[in-house]
Design a protein that fits this description.
By secondary structure, the protein is α/β, with parallel strands linked by helices. It is 36% helix and 16% strand. It is globular, with a radius of gyration of 13 Å.
């Protein structure tokens, strides 16, 4: 099964990239969504099983609502309120949420640490 996870920004993408196998497509919205960006995301995702993982703030909720309309069959993954978005969520909690979404086969144990 091919999967795609849509996140808000490049920091979210790099954070999840450390935790997931290379065959998971991570796509960024880069903040606000317009018609051209939505079309680009739809083209990138194509027919993959899609997951939405946006921040638990007003901006993230607004983006999630737009994405939910565009990808009505997408699975929802949530971060806890109080964390500084996906990028500021501890690895353990991100892994827990990815497992909860059924993505345990795509998680790298232990996470790949960023190079300095």
């Amino acid at each position: 099964m091919e999967i795609a996870i849509i996140v808000e920004g490049k920091n979210d993408k790099s954070r999840l990239k450390r935790l997931l196998t290379e065959d998971v497509l991570l796509v960024c919205t880069y903040g606000s969504l317009n018609t051209a960006r939505l079309e680009s995301i739809k083209k990138a995702v194509h027919d993959r099983e899609t997951y939405l993982f946006t921040d638990n703030d007003s901006s993230g909720k607004k983006i999630r609502a737009i994405l939910r309309d565009t990808f009505p069959d997408a699975e929802q993954i949530y971060t806890r309120r109080g964390y500084a978005g996906v990028e500021g969520t501890p690895d353990e909690y991100l892994i827990q949420q990815l497992e909860k979404a059924g993505l345990e086969d795509y998680i790298v144990y232990p996470p790949v640490l960023p190079t300095l």
